[in-house]
Design brief:
Elements: H1 4-19, E1 26-32, H2 35-45, E2 57-63, H3 66-81, E3 86-92, E4 106-112, E5 115-123, H4 124-142, H5 146-150, H6 155-161, H7 164-195
Parallel strand pairs: 2-5
Antiparallel strand pairs: 1-2, 3-4, 4-5
Length: 197
């Protein structure tokens, strides 16, 4: 937590000002990973080894077009050339394979002062889509089905990967939602007939 203000000042603000000195066409969203999510990730993904988590400090650069995506990546590369960061890993989903939901971005893991941080470079129009998909992604993550989804599995494959208890719970949930929707729809018709007239 003490390093976070320096991460913002020395990395995020520097990249943003190099790309857009006026601050009119770039937005930087940053935060520290929530403690609950970090503990979940340590337990599920890293067998209790907290040092393996790569995104305690993270940020998303939201830009308007592909040339700005390139400028942000170039500014990150400049910081690397200056020795201020080390680039550990880069996933360029604009060039490579998109996620199973069609999401694309550039995701960089950088090392800053001995800590691995995450930088995403995102188009504003795609960020909107990402936010719409967040509830579905969180459900997939909570059921530990991320790898199956990333592999391009079908819904039938995902269902088969679930335990019988999970399939039963999801089926019950779908049935309850359908029942509630039918109840609301059925109540709407008499309400419309008696109160709108």
């Amino acid at each position: 937590e003490r390093l976070y203000p320096r991460f913002v000042r020395e990395i995020l603000d520097v990249v943003a000002s190099k790309v857009d000195p006026g601050g009119e066409s770039i937005t930087v969203l940053s935060n520290l990973k929530r403690r609950e999510r970090a503990e979940e990730k340590v337990k599920l993904d890293y067998s209790g080894q907290a040092a393996k988590v790569k995104d305690y400090m993270r940020a998303t650069f939201v830009v308007l077009d592909m040339p700005q995506v390139c400028h942000v990546y170039g500014a990150v590369d400049e910081l690397k050339q200056e020795g201020k960061i080390k680039v550990v890993n880069v996933k360029n989903r604009f060039r490579g394979k998109a996620t199973s939901t069609g999401y694309r971005d550039i995701n960089c893991n950088i090392e800053f002062e001995g800590h691995v941080c995450e930088l995403q470079i995102q188009l504003a129009c795609l960020l909107e889509v990402k936010h719409d998909q967040t509830p579905a992604y969180e459900l997939i993550r909570s059921l530990d089905l991320e790898e199956e989804v990333e592999d391009g599995s079908t819904l039938a494959d995902l269902a088969a990967a679930c335990s019988p208890a999970t399939r039963w719970a999801l089926g019950s949930f779908r049935f309850a939602v359908a029942g509630y929707t039918s109840l609301v729809g059925g109540a709407y018709i008499p309400f419309g007939l008696f109160y709108d007239g």
